[in-house]
Fold this sequence. Notes:
single chain, alpha+beta, five-stranded mixed beta sheet, 4 helices, globular
Amino acid sequence: MAMVTVRPFERPDVGAVLALMRALAMFEGYDDKLRVTEADLIEHGLGPSPRFGVLVAVCEDVIVGIAVHYIIPWTYDLKPVVWLKELYITEAARGMAVGQALIEQLRQYAAGIGASAIKWTVLKSNMPAKAFYRSLGGETDEIWEPWQLKIDS
């Protein structure tokens, strides 16, 4: 099995990160609504005040997975929460522990900033993702359910 390394994304990674974001959007059915560009990733992820981070999983010099995340600065316990916005692994790299490596690096990051939790959402129909998250100790939130208020713009 090839060695997988995980690190924060850098400027040369932007094209590959966007390609994986598009692949996830296609899988989840919102690719026609995806508006993110390479310039957006650079400005908002690598600029002077990043609004999000991306961990990339690299195998044999190819980016094979991403974990896009951001921080909710504090909640009721005055601790930050890390929100995992997107986790995507290329089909060719699935089964190579890439997802585990990304989540473990994100867990270390969260612990390092004193976060109380990592939170995320999963498509109701994505049973493989649910099984994966359960295998890592993830669990559904028994108290809260997701809601939204759409803003027409």
